[in-house]
Amino acid sequence: MLNKENGFTLPWRFPLSFDREAAFAFVALLFTLLLVYSNSFQGEWHFDDYHNIVDNRCVHVQNLDDLSKSFYGLTCDATDRRISRPLAYATFALNYQFGGTDVRGYHIVNFAIHLSAALFLFLLIRLTLTLPAMNERYGGIAYPVALLSSFLWATSPLQVHAVTIIVQRMASLAGLAYVASLYFYARARTAGQGWRRLVFYALCGTSALAAFATKENTAVLPLTFLLYDLFFIQGISAKSAKAALRWSVLPIAVVVALGLLYTDFAVVRGTYEAGVRPFTPSERLLTQTRVLFFYASLLLYPIPSRLTFLHDIEISHGIFDPWTTLAAIIAIMLFLLFAALKARKYPLLSFAILFFILNHLVEGTLIPLELIFEHRNYIPSMFFFVPIAFGMVRCLDYFSYHKGFQFFMAAGFALLLAFQGHTTFERNDVVRSDVHLWLDNVRKSPGLSRPHINLARHYYEAGMYEQAYIEMKTAEDLNRDSNLRQIGIASYNLGVYYLYQAKDIDRAEKQFIKALERFPGHPSSIVGLSMAYLKRGEIEKAWMLMQEHAPRHRNDVEMINCYGLVLLKKGNARDAIKAAARSMELKWNDPKPWEISGEAWRKLGQWQKAAQCWEEALRLNPANPRAQLALVELYDRLKDGPALARTAARCLALKGAEPLDEWLAGLARNNGVSAYEVDPGKLGRILRRAIIRELAR
């Protein structure tokens, strides 16, 4: 047998050493995360997914040459476009190119990002605990602490939104680039001189740029480098603290520069001045002190009843209103004081405190964002579990003299991990379904309007109009949300209900006007009001509304379709065709612009072109009776007997048992808001003639 003991050796060695600890961590993390996220890969689109991905033309690239347009986020068609989170949007564009809007590909990428971030976190913590300044105290337990910390972080239910809600890849991808950059920085600082150090610095810089290109909250990364270097590489001392203060000018300057680059101060000021938020800048800052402790409590006690998408939190109107605001401010100051005074004795705990607070600064200060989202903890919580894991390992080590008690504690910790994993699995089961997400949110935050608004949409789409009305009315009556324009959407939804279900045009008009008072310039409400005017036959009112608002919404498909329809009603067929062409350019799979084009060409006497447009509209919406009837009239004019017979048969199937004249009369009642106006008498004659001719064959 040929082996080393017999004197046989190969003349070469494998160039890379095999890291058994990292390999085990990767396999264990992969297996565990697959288990707790196994029910997430079919998760539906949610909330911001639609305008960021599903309806965002900027990421709908057909080849790699078009990838650069995704760098502009949502503004690639705007005259004042600006680069926005280019790396995140580029990954969405690549997903779209290879899989369209099939959610599976997006979820696989999100899962791979989370797994990679967990592995890099393991490598970073293990490396940190074995650095020269830390090795004597923590080196012996570096591996179990790193493994346990990464498991606690990766399986935390608070990471579910960042992983399972597709658009929150922005948070998880930023987290991956952030932790990778910090790991490569540590490797570079301890690599000695030579090419290895340069390589690690290059990887650190590349990862940092990737983080900055993914999400704005990574802007504090240079300060994290400074803190990490001070705590774990130089070690805490009076000399290193003074040196850190001297060197702090550069990272602070970088953070300020990134802040100026990222922040559109006109938008920030305009958001507050327009009253979009129910809080002032100072109230937001005060509220965030309490939010910080709420986040920490969720990380420590993540039971299902405390987790939801939109949390209902009381706004702090002053340091004593509520009293917990002052308590939170004092507690934060005490924690910061503890971290500063006890940094040498408890470096892990002190760094974890500073890391958590520092990485909440961007989203937790004056910028008028939503008050609270669980996914914002993705980066700040990365070192949160390190002191906890250290304490768990120390407990097991302390009770090593009593094997029975040690086994009991180990079993308890394992049960804790299993409970956390099960909570994550349960949370994924809720989050994967949009209707379940909002049902859960209504149950846990019944005082917020937005969960009721989004649940009402599902009821409405399912034809459960009474349930939808109840939720919409509840949302409007509550009049409470962290985005006050959402209440305008509740009023708009009620307008849609009155217009199309209750058939009460006057109440619908009042609701659309109320919606525009609460949400000025809301495109859907403008369209709804125009439709109310068209239903009443007030074409000039609808035209005046379109003249005022349509030019400002050239990228809004709904507005352009309404503009084209009003042009059609005014008899301007050629401009209606131009408007429809713009709508098709923005959204190729929408049947409405094809209906407008088809009717416009019919009015111009271009029967063949009209038929082609209506055929495309029917392909996109096969259950559309108006498309069938428009084609019946066109095929009759074109003398296309076989096509007329086929389409007439489909019309009879669509009407069901309802008498033909009644069915046609019912459709005619909505002529005002439809491109094709049903003429019951003419169509009745054509259909009967086609049926008689077919029966006579």
What keyword list fits this structure?
697 residues; mainly alpha; 0% strand; elongated; disordered N terminus
Give the helix/strand layout.
Blueprint: H1 20-36, H2 49-54, H3 86-99, H4 103-129, H5 132-138, H6 142-154, H7 160-164, H8 169-189, H9 195-212, H10 221-234, H11 238-247, H12 249-262, H13 265-273, H14 281-300, H15 324-341, H16 347-358, H17 386-398, H18 403-431, H19 434-444, H20 449-461, H21 465-478, H22 485-500, H23 505-518, H24 523-535, H25 539-549, H26 557-569, H27 573-586, H28 591-603, H29 607-620, H30 625-638, H31 641-655, H32 660-668, H33 680-696
Helix pairs in contact: 1-4, 1-6, 3-4, 4-6, 4-8, 6-17, 8-9, 8-10, 10-11, 10-12, 10-16, 14-15, 15-16, 17-18, 19-20, 20-21, 20-22, 21-22, 22-23, 22-24, 23-24, 24-25, 24-26, 25-26, 26-27, 26-28, 27-28, 28-29, 29-30, 30-31, 31-33, 32-33
Rg on CA atoms, Å: 31 Å
Distinct helical segment count: 33
| Number of β-strand runs | 0
Distance between the termini: 88 Å
Q: What is the makeup of the main sheet?
A: none
How much of the sequence is in beta strands? Answer: under 5%
Show unreliable segments. Answer: 1-16
Shape: elongated
**Residue-averaged pLDDT, rounded?**
90
**Helix content range:** 55-70%
What class do helices, strands and sheet pairing give? mainly alpha
